[in-house]
Amino acid sequence: MPIAPEVYKKIVTAKVYIDDNFRESLDLDRLSREACLSRYHFPRLFTRIYKVTPHQYLTRKRIGQARHFLAARDLTVTEICNHVGFESIGSFSLLFKKQIGAAPSTYRDEAWRKEQQAIRQPRSELRRSCFATLRLVRNLRFARLSTLFF
């Protein structure tokens, strides 16, 4: 059964609220009040529209922001944890590792290594590689066309 447009707008309003306030402590009561829906219907409808629960969406939003801060290397892991809305470094590290596959400090080190490698990599090698790929694609297209016509 389709979701009524006015209900859909309420759920989108709650999602935008999460996007704007993910750094704060958000709970189901607060989000359902923001959507003007009962705390029992809100998560069911949110999950139906976005295919994740409100809590999963909030966690993914926080982890995504944490990845950005970790790559920037301006803040400590603890500062990032607090800045993106997690209340404990333990839960942050556990959820980060579960979602990304690496601990926050490992992710930061890997991002730094990739950045340094990109800086050191000569651009001429990159261009040569791009031209070789283009040449290969062109040759494959020609070979395919020649088998069709000959």
Account of the 3D structure:
The chain is built from eight helices and no strands. It is an all-alpha fold and 150 residues long. Among the domains are: 1-51; 122-149. The protein is flat. It starts with a helix and ends with a helix.
Question: Could you name the key traits of this structure?
Answer:
150 residues; mainly alpha; 8 helices; flat
Write the layout of secondary structure elements.
Blueprint: H1 5-21, H2 28-35, H3 41-50, H4 54-72, H5 77-83, H6 89-100, H7 104-120, H8 123-149
Give the helix proportion (percent range): over 70%
Flag low-confidence runs. none
Order of helices and strands: HHHHHHHH
Distance between the termini: 55 Å
Classification by helices and strands: mainly alpha
How much of the sequence lies in strands comes to under 5%
Q: Rounded to an integer, what's the Rg over CA atoms? A: 23 Å
- Summarize the biggest pleated sheet: none
Count of strand segments: 0
Shape: flat
